[in-house]
Amino acid sequence: MIRIALVDDDTNFHIICSRYVREFFHANNRMHELRLYSSPEMVIYDLKEGRDSDVYFLDVEMPGMNGFELAEKIREHSPEACLIFLTSHTELVMEGYEVKAFAYLPKSLAGEKIRPALQRFLDEYKKKKKKAYLIETPSRFERVEYDEIIYLYREKKYAVLVLQDRQVHVRKPLRVVCEELDSENFMFIERGFVVNIEHILRLADRDLTMRNGDVLPVGRTYLKTVKRMLLHFWKDRI
């Protein structure tokens, strides 16, 4: 069952969004649970009680605690939750990427934007259940989920997978590992570096800042492609 949380202090908006969400999941024959919250404090209480959700629709402008601040609290409990921001001010879009926003929907277009956003979530939800890289050596087997991989780099005869809390060495060329990953989310930014585009926070000049704080150099010959792919990836989430 997929759990969806709608957080908005406007209860009239609850009614509108609830209809679109229920229609989508019924049309896709998917069991779901829809939780309605009128304040961030109610969400935080449920998180502390272990009642988290798979998808959060967050109103950006709420009294007391705004949607971005609530998103930071959600990330502490649910690092992989899907965060979809709702607002009347699309100029705030970049702030959402600090908390790994999945999408950013203008409230005035909620009716036509919610279904495509949920469809994209559902497509990725299905993929994530299967997407993992299997490391096999004579002494160990290890499964690393794609979402865990922030970036990879070459170190002599090894490809090194950089995760949030550790690094994993694979005795294979970096290009071979990238081919085995076989995902458009992984791209070369230099001959010795491959990044997971989902974990990029910003690009300034030729410096790429990743979600774990590491800053990686983008090669001059790769810069145009990196900009194009990053812009396309972020535009899909607006």
UniProtKB/TrEMBL annotation:
Modified positions (4-aspartylphosphate) in chain numbering: D59
SMART domains: LytTR, REC
Domain Response regulatory stretches: 3-122
The entry's keywords: DNA-binding, Phosphoprotein
SUPFAM superfamilies (UniProt xref): CheY-like (SSF52172)
Annotated GO MF terms: DNA binding; phosphorelay response regulator activity
Domain HTH LytTR-type: 139-232
Task performed by this protein: May play the central regulatory role in sporulation. It may be an element of the effector pathway responsible for the activation of sporulation genes in response to nutritional stress. Spo0A may act in concert with spo0H (a sigma factor) to control the expression of some genes that are critical to the sporulation process.
Protein name: Stage 0 sporulation protein A homolog
